Amino acid sequence: MIPTQNYIEFKRKREFGDIITDTFKFLRQNFKMIFKILAKTAGIPFVFFVVAQVYYNTLTFSTAFIQSSNAFGAFEVTSILVSAIFMYVFLFLYFSFLFTGVSCIIKSYIINNGVIKETEAIDNIRAKIGGTLLAGIAKFFILALGYIICFIPGIYFSVPLYLLFAVFIFENKNVSDALGRTFDLVKEEWWITFFTMFLIGLIWYVASFVASLPALIYVWFQTFTSIQEISYTEPDEMFDIVSVIITSISAAIQYIMYVIVPIGASFVYYNLNERKHQTGTLERINSIGASDEEEDDMTNGSSNGNFGRL
């Protein structure tokens, strides 16, 4: 199949800035199909996460939680802890589906030379999600152990584990092999991978901050107004249902925008893989050789046909 006109070649070496540029270029060209597929796969855990977050925000803004003198304060604190656990569980599920979905979408894009086949991508997501959940759990415990032991090992582990889902999907490895492969890829390329990961995360953070500005402005305005009108014994009146809704919507937008992180991870993976193994270069050379052979066969066939007619 001939690549589409705007096809982005993943399997090639890229400089630091090219990874960032191509991440947004790929998202801009394919955002409709990306979000259509993600809505059908990551949509349910995302909705549950948003509901859990709304409930969590409602509790944290409630009178019983803010006023320690309230007789039901202890009960509310327990409810907040339980709701926080559910919220982060659904966030974990959403991230697992998000990284799996984006990787499978990109895999379909590469196989079909710039065409994302919806059914193919969704089937692949369903087949891989169990493994990525296990990979996500392994990643969580490794990072938790690294940060608990010492902060520096946690940072070191974060860089190779950033590529864990990409390796798992693109190379069809099991979880343990994928873990080993990530460290092999990052070896001697840790710093450039770290800076790329950091910049992608920073861009997401800035975009998320912009998305959260309406909520921040409303809460600041509400707090400032309430301080002038009410006593400090009634801090719960600083918050209302509008605060909860705006805050929850802003957070939902932030996590939708998080799609740039797994896209960036895919470009980083192929960049490192190409630097170490040059698989993309070899594939392009082989494809050129195959095309030349086909062209020669067609030429010879045409010549023989003409000779026969003569």
From TrEMBL:
Region of interest: Disordered: 288-310
Keywords of this entry: Membrane, Transmembrane, Transmembrane helix
Ranges annotated as spanning the membrane: 37-56, 80-106, 154-170, 191-221, 241-270
Record's compositionally biased regions (Polar residues): 299-310
Protein name: Membrane domain of glycerophosphoryl diester phosphodiesterase
Organism: Dokdonia pacifica
Record lineage: Bacteria, Pseudomonadati, Bacteroidota, Flavobacteriia, Flavobacteriales
